[in-house]
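Please check this.
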Amino acid sequence: MDKFISYIRVSTGKQGKSGLGIEAQRAAIASFAAAQGAQVAAEYVEVETGKGVDALDRRPKLSAALGQARKSKMPVVVAKLCRLSRDVAFISGLMANRVPFIVAELGADADPFMLHVYAALAEKERNLIADRTRAALAEKKKQGVKLGNSVNLAEAGAKGAEVQRAGADAYAANILPVIRQIQNSGAGTLRAVADALNARGIQTARGGQWHAATVRNVLARAT
């Protein structure tokens, strides 16, 4: 393997603090490339959830990475398996495209069977967490505990706004290295930076297109 296609995905800005941010994934893939003596032929970055049966339809950058990998006969490398999906059926569907996937943290020797096993474990863990949450809520309701807080709406609204601000700040910190990279490449205006982000298929924190004003807001939050 001399060259490969790099695929990086984040769902929200909060993943920047979880080790799953764009720069963290890029660094993991770079370390993998150095260890293998290989080069990144192309990089695809996507900001989109991996959930849902239509996940591939909502991930055009992954589709583009698949297309280039298939045409160039190169593998696609991701930092972690969950950057593809935690769903076994989805992983199987990707493999049906006959494009080899390599997960950097698992190593180049992890075969397709092992990828299925790891995906199955991740899917099982996700389902167990959901089941435990539902069971705990059902038990509390059975005990007469009133779920939610319908009284202090002002406090709930304030907490919601605080969570939104924290998410926006995290997203700004996560996307800032990408913006700086674009600026260092010659984009001298906010409009040029916005165009470059849109060209890469990177969405804003709310899933929309970039404009000069949104770039300015991100830079203001990150400083």
